[in-house]
């Protein structure tokens, strides 16, 4: 099956620093990638949708200057949490949509961010 | 407003029993309904999905039942096993699959 990787799997950083999370589709071309945030014992909250080569579309309430998304190639999207604060601590999950089978989203394993 | 409502929030089932999780939606434009399984600390994995042109889809021990008129769909796990213990999310999407709406999740615990 299709595989999506995320790196790092977990990260601890100091308040005020920026953190970059990578999402890669390993064996397929992802025309669209999604970034989600998940709080403990809660559902996935869509943050933004990114299409290769174009600007990301952010959901209402998500600060685009805070969460920078780049989708430079068909296999890589990055999420940068800028000037991270403790309230940004969360589980960030990306998913990628296979361009050949439009309906299927494949999720990455997630990145746990802890901001001290 | 929550687009997809999921119940129950948690479920305890004995090994070998049937686990049933229900979801309901309002938007009649939805036409793709996947179920995802998530283990602690991991990303969700696609379990099974259905389109509204069929009323049931079965894959192994997992079955989706779909009621278009009632705008409801459910996941049935037959012969539930302790390894099925996880959180299950239903979701819905429109034809262009540009956005998926997730249910609130059901934590399933299958007791040996």
The whole-angstrom Rg of chain A is 13 Å
Helix content of chain B: under 10%
Residue share in helix of chain A: under 10%
Number of strands of chain A: 11
Oligomer: heterodimer
- Structural class call of chain A reads mainly beta
Counting helices, strands and paired strands, the structural category of chain B is: mainly beta
Q: From the alpha-carbon coordinates, what is the Rg of chain B to the nearest angstrom?
A: 13 Å
Number of helical regions of chain B: 0
Low-confidence stretches of chain B: none
From N to C, what is the helix and strand string of chain A? Answer: EEEEEEEEEEE
Biggest beta-sheet profile of chain B: 6 strands, mixed
- One letter per element, helices H and strands E, the order of chain B comes to EEEEEEEEEEE
The average pLDDT of chain B is: 93
- Largest interface pair: A-B, 23 and 22 residues
Number of strands of chain B: 11
Largest sheet of chain A: 7 strands, mixed
Distance between the termini of chain A: 37 Å
Q: Strand-residue fraction of chain A?
A: over 45%
Summarize the structure.
With 116 residues, chain A is mainly β.
Overview of the structural elements:
- By secondary structure, chain A is mostly beta strands.
- Helix content of chain A is 0%, strand content 55%.
- Chain A is built from no helices and 11 strands.
- In chain A, strands 2, 4, 5, 6, 9, 10 and 11 form a 7-stranded mixed beta sheet that branches. In chain A, strands 1-3-8-7 form a 4-stranded antiparallel beta sheet, with no helix packed on it.
- In chain A, a hairpin with a 5-residue loop joins strand 5 (44-51) and strand 6.
- The radius of gyration of chain A is 13 Å and the shape is globular.
- Chain A starts with a strand and ends with a strand.
- Helices cover 0% and strands 54% of the residues of chain B.
- The model of chain B has no long low-confidence stretch (mean pLDDT 93).
- Chain B has strands at 4-7, 10-14, 19-25, 33-38, 45-50, 56-59, 62-67, 72-77, 86-93, 100-102, 106-111.
- In chain B, a hairpin with a 6-residue loop joins strand 9 and strand 10 (100-102).
- With 112 residues, chain B is mainly β.
- Chain B is globular.
- Chain B starts with a strand and ends with a strand.
- The A-B interface holds A 4, 6, 32, 34, 41-44, 46, 49, 93, 95, 97, 102-110, 112 and B 32, 34, 36, 41-46, 49, 89, 93, 96-100, 102-105, 107.
